[in-house]
Amino acid sequence: MHIPFLLRAVALAAALIPLTATAAPLSLDAALDLAVQRSESAHSARAGAASASEMARASGQLPDPMLNVGVENLPVTGSDRFSTAREPMTQKVVGISQEWVSQEKRSARQAAAQASVTREMAQAQVAIADTRLQTAMAYLDAYYAAEALKLTTANEHHANEELAASRARLASSTGGSQDVLALTAALGMSEDESAEIAQQQSAAKVVLQRWVGAPAEDLLPVQVLLIPTEQDYVASHPLVVAAQRDIEVARHEAAFAATNRNPNWTWSVSYGQRVGNSDMVSVGVSIPLPVSRAERQDRETSSKLAMVEKSEAALNEATRVATSEFLALASDTQRLQERIERYRSAVARPAQQRTAAAMAAYRSNQATLAMLFEARHAELEIQRKVLTLQRDLAKTQAQLAYRPLALGAQQ
């Protein structure tokens, strides 16, 4: 009788586990993995690559043979009209024809199709890189909004304590009403600042949830990001990689177009059955006559070669864009690091010293609570400024780290 009770207890405990367990903090790497797994744009690009791969396999095959069935030399006038047995020339025909595409032409066509596969695979990697970048930016916005909320919440807590102390001093006739009024206004300002930051955090968490698929309450600090060199950044930039793949496709299509100067022959064999007469076999070859190669086939090849030139120019432009982008981001990274160091030493440290001095003065009855709160609020604003600079630095480094395709993906 105790076994059912034990089983129910175990089942109840198992049911309560998800309700009592605390969700583990989310790291940036885990967020990136989740985003890539559920990215529909990456899924769409992979499906495109799979489609191109299937087409490439079919492109190397010969065209399907043609089955020909019919009646030849059927009378349509006279007493023998529509008769298949009276006229000696009438015959029932069944035959087969096959367009013959040379191995050279099939290889060229398959190479062009395979180049399209490579381009589609590169597009899939581009979609993944964009997903990772957008997720990283959303993660950083949410993380630094949470850090800013900690600062404003701490300042709000201090304002509550100082207002309570000021009211106690007013009740004991050792404080003035002006301090109470000033601290009341300061508390309202602190609460509004917390509400503003909480609103920003909520919006950032919604954007992050759009990528990872689930709400993330706790975010881990971002580790040091691996920043590529200028050469690696440019070589793996999505614009550069896409332009390189376009050149490959254009070159193979031009090579395939050049093979069209030699037309495809078509072989045919047919068997004719006649009533009361000998059956007949027909064998034939159809050969297209390129009467104006310079106006048709050569112009088609020239068109494809022009596309190669267009793709090469696009690659040069993409390389310039990627190089300029890297230099700008690298410059922003250096300037932001310098600003953070300078702000900490020249602004944040004196603000901390000012707060410590105001605290000492207040304890020795040489300063009011309002003066202490003002010093603390000024320090809070400086800390928020440092956080903003750190966020901007992290987002700039994220662009350097995640905008290029993953190492080896461009191969």
Q: What is the strand tally?
A: 4
> How much of the residues is beta strand, in percent?
5-15%
Mean pLDDT: 83
N-end to C-end Cα span: 67 Å
CATH class: Mainly Alpha
Characterize the main sheet.
Answer: 4 strands, antiparallel
Task: Provide the CATH architecture.
Answer: Up-down Bundle
| Uncertain stretches | 1-22
CATH topology: Outer membrane efflux proteins (OEP)
What is the total number of structural domains? 1
CATH-defined superfamily: Outer membrane efflux proteins (OEP)
Number of helices: 9
Structural Rg:
39 Å
The string of secondary-structure elements, in order, is: HHHEEHHHHEEHH
**Rough shape?**
elongated
Strands of the biggest beta sheet: in what spatial order?
1-2-3-4
Structural class: alpha+beta
Helix content: 55-70%
Quickly list its features.
alpha+beta; 9 helices; Outer membrane efflux proteins (OEP); 411 residues
How does this structure look, described?
The structure is a single chain. With 411 residues, the protein is of the alpha+beta class. It has helices spanning 2-20, 28-38, 40-59, 103-171, 177-212, 230-235, 238-258, 297-363, 369-402; strands spanning 66-72, 91-100, 265-273, 280-286. The chain has a single domain (24-77, 103-262, 299-402), classed as Outer membrane efflux proteins (OEP), CATH 1.20.1600.10. It has nine helices and four strands, in the order H-H-H-E-E-H-H-H-H-E-E-H-H. Strands 1-2-3-4 form a four-stranded antiparallel β-sheet, with no helix packed on it. Helix 2 (28-38) packs across helix 4 (103-171), helix 4 runs antiparallel to helix 5 (177-212) and helix 4 runs antiparallel to helix 7 (238-258).
